[in-house]
Write a structure and sequence with these properties.
The protein has helices spanning 2-14, 36-62, 151-155, 207-213, 320-358, 368-375, 382-426, 431-456, 464-471, 480-493, 498-515, 518-524, 539-545, 557-573, 578-585, 589-595, 602-614, 619-632; strands spanning 66-74, 81-84, 91-95, 101-102, 108-122, 125-134, 137-139, 163-165, 172-175, 183-193, 217-228, 237-248, 253-268, 276-292, 298-306, 309-317. By secondary structure, the protein is an alpha+beta fold. Among the domains are: 69-315, no CATH class; 498-527, no CATH class; 557-633, no CATH class. The strands form three sheets. Strands 1, 5, 6, 10, 13, 14, 15 and 16 form an eight-stranded mixed sheet that branches. Strands 3, 4, 7, 8, 11 and 12 form a six-stranded antiparallel sheet that branches. Strands 2-9 form a two-stranded antiparallel sheet. α2 (36-62) packs antiparallel against α5. The chain binds 2-acetamido-2-deoxy-beta-D-glucopyranose (3 copies). Residues 81-84, 86-87, 281-282 line the site of one 2-acetamido-2-deoxy-beta-D-glucopyranose. This is Transmembrane protein.
Length: 633
């Protein structure tokens, strides 16, 4: 009971196997019919796709198939950005009307600060706390320009007449937030007229003198910025110098705000998954100027602060699975196209293969009657009628005659070799060399027999033009092959039906019923299956078991021919048996030619060959002559 259940469970479990081996019929030891054209098409298709895949993967490595999109993000409170000597450089000074920058602390002084406002909320009340940190400035020199990419840009300035951040005294500075946010930090540069309160290292000039000198001046200011190149996969930020230039005057007070925009590039560097690499920096976005007409000792304030709008760039590279699935789609299209081209050719070639193994086909060139007529032409009446046809046919016929001659030559050479083998027996040679020469001759005969069969084969040989006829559905009445194929195809298509095969199996059952008695049939079921011994190659085994067609030993062409020859001799000598008579009469003439080559009748056959070559007799007639001769002898 339990045993039964477990068996059932096993059977059900086995049904899950999706890798089951389908039951197949083979054709010529292959699972399907394959053609050379199909093989070429397949390799063409595969190499094309390999090429595409390699090109695509190469592009992927190069970052060529990139998609990018940019968005803007609004921040109420931009987060902190640190700046240091490698990515922040400032140069600025006031310019005289002749556009020459100058530093003169007896005229104007600059105070630089990092201004911080922290808003505290206590009891619903906002309290702003301002703190300031000095930003050390100094007269510029090339050593202070430490941003490598922009050294070239800044070297064009007259550095010693400009102010710079003194990187020897400060390591880094930062910007954060906006004016409304809880934390706000910005750089503030205050330009003031030199007076008792503001004076630094130098004594101030007289007030009128200063006012006059500053009446019509310019302000020159340089800072680093970036442009974004999304196509550059390693370094999307390209440094550039930003130059701000404006007028100033002692008569007005200017307030300039320079807004720095955060830019972020998200690069998807994952090959299969998304894996974003984030790069960010600040760039100059815009500046605003406000003018106050109140005359005071202030010339200008410059504030460097963050912008609230962040620019973001997303860069996606095509993923490997996307490439592969795209290629899969493309493959479907190309495969379908190739399939449409290949399918009819394959079908035709498949049926031709089946037809060739089932039928023999009369070859188009064979026109023996005309051949004969040409040999004895009637000069008066036939000349004109045939001259045109003759020209048309002549090439074909020459081919045919050559073919025929070839097969005859082969027959002759087989005969010669057989004679040689027999001659060796009578020669006085040592047995070993005799054996060897025999072996060689046997091999040669075997080869000749193969060639003979090739030369007399009546198979349909398809040329590519024949395929074109069929694919165009253009059946040329002059194209005998298409007629032959159509006819024979109709004949076999029924037999390829599984119902037909089942019917035939049933017929065998019926035959069994008719041929065997009831008790014989009962025993029949117990007939032993062929048993494969430990050494299947042993000679004894092949002799005892070879009535099973499945175990018939493989013989070479020569051996087969020799066997057939002996069997033929046997049949000819027992012509009383009607089956023998029928059998002989159904053998192809050309094969009879081969079989008739026997030691005792060599001369007779050479006469017969002459007959065959000269003129095609009715097959049965030839045989009857031959048989008559045998009976009389
Ligand atoms: C890039 O990846 C992001 C993140 O998944 C996605 O939202 C976006 O649509 C992708 N862009 C393109 C152009 O494929
Ligand atoms: C400047 O460089 C520092 C150190 O390399 C880095 O922490 C900072 O984020 C950079 N700032 C910008 C705006 O690129
Ligand atoms: C403008 O100047 C007047 C008089 O000189 C002074 O009272 C006033 O406070 C100044 N305003 C500002 C904003 O400095």
């Amino acid at each position: 009971m339990f045993n039964n259940f477990s068996k059932k469970a096993l059977r059900i479990l086995k049904k899950v196997d999706i890798f089951s081996q389908p039951v197949l019929l083979l054709i010529k030891q292959e699972q399907g019919h394959k053609t050379l054209f199909g093989a070429c098409l397949t390799s063409g298709l595969i190499s094309f796709f390999l090429y595409l895949l390699i090109v695509n993967l190469f592009d992927l490595r190069q970052g060529k198939n990139l998609t990018s999109l940019s968005t803007e993000i609004y921040h109420t409170q931009p987060h902190q950005f640190k700046l240091d000597e490698t990515n922040f450089t400032l140069t600025f000074a006031i310019q005289s009307p002749s556009f020459k920058t100058y530093i003169d602390e007896s005229v104007y002084v600059v105070e630089a600060k990092i201004q911080t406002k922290i808003t505290r909320i206590t009891d619903n009340e906002k309290i702003d706390e301002w703190t300031q940190q000095d930003l050390p400035l100094t007269k510029c020199n090339p050593e202070l320009i430490r941003q490598v990419e922009l050294q070239q840009y800044f070297s064009q300035l007259d550095l010693t007449t400009n102010y710079c951040i003194d990187w020897n005294k400060i390591k880094e500075l930062d910007l954060e937030g906006t004016f409304d946010s809880l934390v706000y930090r910005a750089i503030l540069l205050e330009f003031k007229i030199c007076n008792d309160l503001t004076k630094k290292s130098k004594e101030c000039k007289s007030r009128d003198e200063i006012k006059k000198q500053l009446e019509q001046n310019y302000f020159s200011f340089q800072m680093p910025s970036y442009v974004v190149d999304v196509k550059n996969d390693k370094h999307p930020f390209l440094s550039k110098g930003e130059d701000i230039f404006t007028t100033i005057s002692s008569k007005i007070f200017k307030e300039i705000s320079i807004y720095m925009q955060p830019i972020t590039v998200f690069t998807d560097i994952g090959i299969i998954n998304e894996d974003y690499e984030v790069q960010n920096t600040l760039r100059y976005k815009r500046h605003t100027e406000m003018i106050d007409l109140n005359e005071s000792d202030l010339i200008m304030n410059v504030v460097i602060r963050l912008d609230q709008i962040e620019q973001q760039y997303y860069r996606n590279y095509t993923k490997i699975q996307i490439i592969i699935s795209k290629m899969g789609g493309l493959w479907q299209v190309f495969f379908t196209l190739a399939f449409l081209i290949q399918k009819p050719i394959n079908m035709l070639s498949y049926y031709v293969k089946i037809l060739n193994s089932l039928f023999e086909f009369e070859q188009e060139q064979k026109k023996p009657i005309k051949n004969q007529k040409q040999e004895n032409p009637n000069p008066e009446t036939l000349q004109q009628e045939f001259s045109s046809r003759q020209q048309l046919q002549s090439t074909k016929e020459i081919l045919f005659i050559q073919n025929k001659k070839k097969s005859l030559q082969r027959l002759q050479s087989i005969k010669r070799k057989k004679k040689q083998i027999e001659a060796i027996e009578s020669l006085a040679l040592d047995p070993q060399s005799k054996e060897e020469t025999k072996k060689q001759l046997t091999k040669a005969i075997s080869f000749s027999i193969k060639q003979y069969f090739l030369s007399i084969s009546k198979k349909l040989k398809m040329r590519w033009t024949d395929y074109l006829y069929f694919i165009n559905c253009f059946v040329n009445s002059k194209n005998y092959k298409s007629l032959q194929i159509q006819y024979s195809f109709k004949k076999i298509i029924k037999q390829m039906d599984v119902l037909y095969i089942l019917k035939k199996l049933q017929e065998i059952d019926k035959l069994k019923m008719i041929l065997l008695t009831e008790s014989q049939i009962k025993i029949f079921d117990y007939l032993q299956k062929p048993t494969i011994p430990l050494d299947p190659d042993s000679a004894q085994f092949s002799v005892t078991q070879n009535y099973y067609s499945i175990l018939k030993p493989r013989k070479n062409d020569y051996q087969k021919a020799v066997d057939a020859e002996i069997a033929f001799k046997d049949l000819v000598e027992n012509l009383d048996n009607p089956i023998n008579m029928k059998l002989i009469n159904s053998i192809d003439q050309t094969i009879v030619d081969l079989l008739k080559m026997r030691k005792d009748s060599l001369d007779v056959i050479s006469e017969g060959d002459v007959c065959i070559s000269g003129q095609r007799y009715d097959r049965n007639a030839v045989l009857s002559i031959d048989i008559n001769q045998r009976n009389s002898s």
